[in-house]
Amino acid sequence: MTRIDNQAESRLIEAAKDLVPGLIEYIIAYRTELKQGARCIVHDDREADIKLDNELFYEAFYITLHLLDRLVQQTLGSYKRSLFMDAIYQTISDELLSKGVLKDDIIDEFNKFQDEYSKFKLFPSKGENRFKDTIHWEFGKKIVAKYGDGNPATILVIFTGVLLTVQDLQKTLESLKLSSFA
Hints:
Blueprint: H1 6-37, H2 46-76, H3 78-98, H4 106-118, H5 135-147, H6 152-175
Helix pairs in contact: 1-2, 1-3, 1-6, 2-3, 2-6, 5-6
């Protein structure tokens, strides 16, 4: 466990809090991409469509936070990752609560998601040309099976979206100069 001084700790926590508004916007946009990319069956029933949007919001929420968590762990290590991600979780929870969007069981659901996806690789091993058992592939399979048109080619659309999310998060973390806290 690598401790940091109080001033650096405060800056790290503030950097996490400052990230949240953009992160929420990103998740909302990603939900729309998931809906279009998976060719979700849109219902004539407005209530069913709202339910689908809410479910996809949480899928986008879980995958985005999971990927962010893994990238921050790689950059900062366990102790600093805990500081950063705890600030993210608290701030994002407060924001979503204030908008009336937070589910009661969000922590339990996110922990299940973390457990499920932590066993998958972020990227294939070097020299490996298969994507089976990567987060990208497994998330794509789940979204297409649960919400999509069932077309296996559609998995690649979701897969690509997850890859782009990883790239976007990496750029965001670089812009925060997160590595300076490592």
